Amino acid sequence: MSAEVLDRLDALASMVAALAPAPTPTVNVTDLWDGFALANREKLRSWRCYAQRWRDHVGPAFGARDAGAVVPADVDTYRAQRRATGAAIATVNREVALLRRLLNFGVRRGRLARSHLHGPGMTAELIHPEDNVRTTVIEEDPTAALTLDDLLDAAGPALRAYILLVHHTGLRRREAAIMRWDRIREGVAWVPGKETKGGRAGRIVPLSARAQLALAELPREGDFLFPSKRRGGRPITPDAWTHRFGKLVRKLGLDGPDGPPWLHDLRRSFVTLSRREGESEKGIMNITGHKTRSVFDRYDAYDLRDILLFRERRDKARAERATLRGPRKGPHRASSNHIETELQRMRENKA
Predict the structure, then answer these.
(1) Any residues with CB less than 8 A from the CB of 256 and at least 6 apart, and which?
(2) With 90 as the cut, is the pLDDT of residue 1 above it?
(3) Can you give the pLDDT at residue 326?
(4) Does residue 271 share a domain with residue 221?
(5) Are 165 and 254 in contact (CB under 8 A)?
(6) What is the average pLDDT across 31-56?
(7) Given CA atoms 305, 308, 310, 313 in this order, what sign does their dihedral have?
(8) pTM, entire model
């Protein structure tokens, strides 16, 4: 082969190399997290949850991995390891969802060519069904198995007021924790949209007489209902309230259908008891801030008591209708005389 032909082949190879896309540099998952945090830290209302999941679980497991090489089998291995430590299905699902979101973020920003965790049917494969709907309801009825007074009698003034505030309004634990005095007027509380989950517009929440009385007993030591001296007057954190509530439950040895009650069960109790008292579901959702019916249904604990109440109301309605009826008439049957009369009327009309 002549030197001229070799030169032409070299030139052609150089042209092909110039047209070929440059190899994508390796990007690990931590690189994607850093970019994701920079873009979303100030935007996402639930950023603390994202940061906690990354710091405690997703980061240690996937942070050093090549993001473009993460495949569903890696998620299966991670899920098995987390479940072996006792993590709930819902918890692992949210961690897997964070990993998928990071990879999709990398694709959108041009840092990854593709995500192996994205595609038709991938959500059903990676996000497992959650069978963790709780049914615990804390009631004010003294004959119930789990009553509100069991908690209030043993709680201090601040915890008592916090429990009543959540139980009687359906506020989320953070919404109650950061409530300010200047947002409570004439028996209602204002929740700004910027401080609530998943909503731009704020909402007005009615306060029961018992909740107002508990709040009136609190000393006003700043702008917030529940200031913390350790935090320089800033509100006590939601996690601190969860810790206090759990400590109280363990001290009393309380138990429910799902095990020891959680602080979040107070919000479910408000939804369930309000519906049993005859409030419309739309009205309850406006107060609690639920945006979808599917989420609302997870907070509405429908049990045997509701079935028995349904039967009782139906029997009562049937009995009331029966008293309003007159004597029962027999079935209507067209007689031959009636037919003849009708035919005669038609003949007369034609004439």
Answers:
(1) 136, 138, 145, 146, 265
(2) no
(3) 61
(4) yes
(5) no
(6) 89
(7) negative
(8) 0.67
